[in-house]
Amino acid sequence: MYSIASTYTTTCSVLHSKFSDTANHIFTTSSLSQCFNKLNLQWRFRKPNLCKYPQLVLVYNKLNGRPKHINLEAADKSASYSANFTDSLRLLEWPKLCEAVAAFAGTQLGKEALKDQMCSLHLSPEQSEALLSETDAGFELLKYSGSTFDFSGLNAVEAKSAIDRLGRGFVIDGKEALAIAALLQFCDGLQDMLKASLKEDAEWYTRFMPLSQMLNEMVINQALVRTILQIVDEEGLVKDDASSDLKQARNQVRKVEQRLYQLLNSILLNHRDENYSQEISYIDGRWCIRSDMEGASDFQGLLLWSGSGVEKYLEPVSAVPLNDELAQARALVSKAEFEALADLTERVLPQLDDIKFLLISVVQLDVIMSRAKYSMAFGGTRPILVITDADGFSTSQLSDAEDHQHNTDGNVSGDNGEDWLLHLRKLYHPLLLQRHHEKIQKIKQKINSTASQLRRARPHERSFSSRERIENHLKFLESKVASLEANHPIPVDILVRRKTKVLIITGPNTGGKTATIKTVGLAALMAKCGLYLLAAEPVKIPFFDSVFADIGDEQSLSQSLSTFSGHLQQIKGIRAQSTGHSLVLLDEVGAGTNPLEGAALGISLLESFADSGSLLTIATTHQGELKTLKYSNDRFENACVEFDEENLRPTYKLLWGIPGRSNAISIAERLGLPTHILDNAQQLYGKDSAEINKVIIDLENAKQAFQEDLLATEYYLKKDKSSA
Q1: Cα angle 544, 546, 551; round to 5
Q2: How far is CA 563 from CA 92, 550, 605, 618, in A?
Q3: Rounded CA gap, 595 and 71, in Å?
Q4: From the CB of residue 693, how many other CB atoms can be counted at a distance below 10 Å?
Q5: pLDDT tens per residue across span 284-332
Q6: What is the pLDDT of residues 590-638, one digit of tens each?
Q7: 633 backbone φψ class: left, alpha, beta (φ>0; ψ -120 to 50)
Q8: How far is 670 from 216, CA to CA, in rounded Å?
């Protein structure tokens, strides 16, 4: 039998203090795998069921997989791959998105585990689909529970500390015991919810899979919960009724403290001096009198402490025996508290394995529910994840998600019968959408605060001008919200045919080209790690083994490289590491050098990626020669960002099948540049180029007219269906 109380000595209070220090150990690891290590899980009792929880399998394999030897050449290649991939994630702002999703976690362990999972992107297609299935279950659970799933009552860090100390043979403290009770109660509530849902409809069990199986296998000892709550209170303090010895010792402390108070109070009354301040105080475990009297006091006492000036703390000689008696009584209290907690530890210890499993399950559930909460909060759509060969042809569809997605044409192979490699309509950049929501929420909070202030203000308490000022401020805030809602982030349509290997996006600066390729890159990563995509149904995206990006104009100062050389160095690494299943994103390819040489190099690079360098490459450019690749190679496709010439600003919409055109001369004309300068520029630009621009304008107008007709047709078709 586990026994600690039997070794208790008179130094109990010191030992107990040390144990309390150990309790302050906080679990701060950044990975779920370290969570397993810290919990010292052996998984003897759960090994057969690991296959039911895909993410736990990944962590278990990670913990137990040990290479027999190190291949230095492979290690160098892996380091190079990791550097290129990590740099790409930074350029895409993936860490910021990880933080945004982790904000939906309810526990600190869940936040850290989620960020670790989202940064562990070396997954197989089956593993990514398993993560999406978990998110599906979380989504269903949120819908059943009314979009709320509260982890706030849990202290996972404290529960982790308790498990860690139990494993090392230490006595748990009251707060740790309370955290274990809260963990058991939370899991019991989950099981009750599952049972209630099954009474309503047995199909919920299937909808919640694999979470329903995880919840069903939780072992919860209700008797242990009752035992813990009998011994510790809601603050984690040991109750008086935990033992008769503790109750007697605390009663003795209260009696001695009362006698001390009466003694000190009588001293104050007998030596009162209105010229000085004196009061009963407590310092270093001793009751005493604080005084600011100059010189010697009127009573004999021991100086415990003196501050700046004349302030001093005196323990009257007559109070010394009672303070000593109080210290002894408190030592007995500490001894009794320790014995009660030691006895509680003995009762908890046999349940340690089950408690470990509960904590890991709850942390994993927090991770899954965070992905589901994020997906629901921003109106995400479940992606159809497709495995493709190097030519973009589907080899398998990992789920039947397509059966649950409906659109006007009823088929994700979509518009005009085209089979799409990438079908993402109304796709939002997640970080831009999040920032937009945060701005609106922040102003709405100010509106609520201002409205509350206005309601509390009564006419006789505030002047008319003051009320008018508050009302005007409220109107200003409301108009600001209306303005933000009217200027909602603009989504893009990404429709890439399966035969397309390279997509070239052209158009003016600040037109949204870079934001577009970042949005596609983030969408690929989101689908891979089990998140829904912020796009309209249906959503189809291939499984990309990696996403590589070269974005921005950063210089490599550490290697003394220019902007152009820095880009080439990055692209060289990407070309070496990308495979026929990778997504490659290149911003302003061929820029930063002589335009003719840059265009030639850009064409050669893109043709190289089209041949064998990636499943899909998306590049932005200002190089006019790159726009012509589509007309000589059917593996290339063009798109451009639309520009509003009337208002001289981009619309941030993509036009497909059309190369971008130059707007410099037309913008200069609208801005009033002298006619002779414009005429000279037009002559230098060339008649042929002007005619090409005119053709592009006609194509843009035709495309816009077609889209308007298409929308009108869809509207009337829907109207006919609803009236039928």
Answers
A1: 115
A2: 18, 12, 17, 20
A3: 43
A4: 16
A5: 888 998 887 665 666 777 888 777 666 788 888 989 999 999 999 999 9
A6: 777 777 888 888 899 999 999 888 899 999 988 777 877 888 888 999 8
A7: beta
A8: 69
**Longest alpha-carbon distance in the chain:** 110
> Does residue 614 sit in helix, strand or coil?
coil
Residues of the chain with pLDDT under 70: 1-81, 147-148, 273-275, 293-298, 308-310, 389-418, 457-465, 553-562, 645, 648, 660-663, 685-704, 707-708, 711, 715, 719, 722-724
Residue 363: what pLDDT?
Answer: 93
Token duo for residue 338 = 């320790």
Cβ contacts of residue 302 below 8 Å, gap of 6+?
Answer: 314, 315, 317, 320
User: Alpha-carbon distance 27 to 543, whole Å?
Assistant: 35
Contacts of 711 (CB under 8 A, 6+ apart): none
223 token code pair: 């008797």
- What are the residues whose beta carbons fall under 8 Å from the beta carbon of 154, sequence distance 6 or more? 106, 107, 179, 182, 183, 186, 362
Q: Report residue 47 as tokens.
A: 């090994």
Cis amide bond preceding 210, omega within 30: yes
Sign of CA dihedral 313, 316, 322, 327: positive
Binning the chain into helix, strand and coil, the percentages to the nearest 5 are 60, 15, 30
Q: How far is CA 474 from CA 71, 463, 487, 488, in A?
A: 67, 17, 20, 22
Q: Return the structure tokens found at 62.
A: 């990670």
Within 8 A by CB and 6+ apart from 123, the residues are 58, 131, 528, 529
